[in-house]
Structures are given as C-alpha cells and as structure tokens.
C-alpha cells in the first residue's frame, strides 16, 4: 500500500482556513504541534493504555461482528451476524488516535493508511448499530479534554463576516468533480427523505438517492405552501436544485437565492440557464447579512426556504440570521421552512 503522510486531526478540520490575527495563528500552530505529537505516540505504557481503552469499549458490541488483526493478535467482538467487518491494524498509532479522538481518530487512521478494512460500509453500519454503547465508552476524560482544547483554535470558524466566506469556500469549493462522485444527479448535498425510516441503514433501500432527494424537495415546497406568483428567498443555494424545482413546478414563482460559494454559484447559474429559468431565479453571491444592503428587499418576500445552511451560522449569530429573515418577509403573510442537521444533547461539545 502506498504510504500517505500522517495528518493531524486539527489539520483535517482547518481546510486552509487561517486566522486573521497573528496571535490566533500562533495558538493554532502550537495546538497543531501538540495534537500531532500526542496522536502519533506509540510509547509502550501510553500505547497499552490507549489500546485497552479502545478494546474495552469495543467489548460492548452486541450487534454485528468485528474482527481486528494487529500483528499476531486477533480480537473478535460481537455475535456471528451481519454486518461483519475486518480491520487490519498497520501501526500502533491507530489505538492512540481512536482513544484520543474517537470517531474522527478512526477516520484519520484510514486517511493515514494505518488501518485497513475489508468493507468500510459494513464497518460504518456496525458502528451505527452499536453507537449507544460506543459513544459514551469512547468519550473518555482524555478525549473530552482534547476536544475542549480544540476550542482554542476554533475562532476561525466563528460565522462572522470575516470568516464565513473562507469557511464556506474551504468546503464547497473543493471541486465539483468530488461532489459529482457521490451525489445523485440532482446535486443535493443535504439529507434525503426515504419512504421508510432508516431504509438506508438496514439494507438496500427501495428508493434511490435521487428519489429520496426529490421527496425531500417536494416536501419543503409543500410545507412552505409556496403558491403561484410567490417571491421566495432562499438562503443557501447549493447547486440550485430546490430553486429550479420551485420555479419549474410553481407558475410565476420567483426565487432570489443566496450563497457564499463561488463554485456553487457558477454551477447553479449554469444549470438555471440550461433549464431556461434565468428570468425566474437569481443567484446572489453574498453573505446573508448583506441582504440589508438591498433596501428594496425589505418586506417583499412571500416565502423563505433554507436547507442545511443554518448550521453554518453559529449560535452567536442566530439572532442576526432570523433578524434578516424577519426583515425580508412580508409582515403579515410571510412564512418559511428550514431544514437543519441536529445533534443530540449527549454529543454537544464532544
């Protein structure tokens, strides 16, 4: 297997986003150095401790079957049932990373080629089925402490006007080829709605991903009660799929869509033009707070839609986000729909 340089956990998260201040950069560099050093430690007693922590947590697996081969040692967990997964540990660093950084440490281990798996999809299913036990078991004092430490370098991700553009571009401008590789043709990068709950977790779902995405988009338009002739504000364009569906299926519907991603804006405009909807949809490359710079928008929108964009806003800016929405909506009749990714309270701060 081709050797891949080791990447620290924090480096996988920053994605080229840099601090605007030199002090923040110094703190970040120190933290990157510390986490890189700790996560690659294979010193005997420390490695033994990390390995025992991980093996102890995996001992609680009750759904599925997991085999781990580490040199001459073989560890077997669970029952003789599906899903079944086989892990080959290539370096003791694997145990350190998983013990310290849990799920992100596991992902990073694959990136650094210090662990192999015969079927990653089955491994993920197995971990999901056992998550109620694994999450609290692996969230040790050490991993929790290091998670708190990462907050020292998280200021760059605060959703202010200075950081938001860089944060969005570092993710969504990675290249359209990447997203084309795993999204359905409609290019929806958000949760789909399948006809059966958890259908994608228990086997091959009856719906295709495209079916699920179309069901999701239609439900949003239905719940938003978007009517012929309505003017719609969309915060978070994506690649334009929802705006295109709205303009295509609701007579006279006009959409103003906002995005900070230059790449997504370009693709969305191209798709809108190819659909013959340039007179119905306008994509604005701007921050949602810049709506206030368009005074003609005040109180003019009938409906508001936003799909998995609010996660980028940040808790400190939620009030400002809703202030923009309230300002743009018609005072008495305006309404909207927001789809967001949520996290259980047990995972907050982890």
Automatic annotation (TrEMBL):
What domain of life does the native source organism fall in? Eukaryota
Q: Which InterPro entries match?
A: CFA/CMAS, CMAS, SAM-dependent_MTases_sf
**Signal sequence residues:** none
Pfam families, per database record = CMAS (PF02353)
Q: Give the protein name, as stated in the record.
A: Cyclopropane-fatty-acyl-phospholipid synthase
Q: Which GO molecular function entries does the Swiss-Prot or TrEMBL record give?
A: methyltransferase activity
Provenance organism:
Armillaria ostoyae (Armillaria root rot fungus)
Keyword Ligase assigned: no
Higher taxonomy:
Eukaryota, Fungi, Dikarya, Basidiomycota, Agaricomycotina
The similarity annotation says:
Belongs to the CFA/CMAS family.
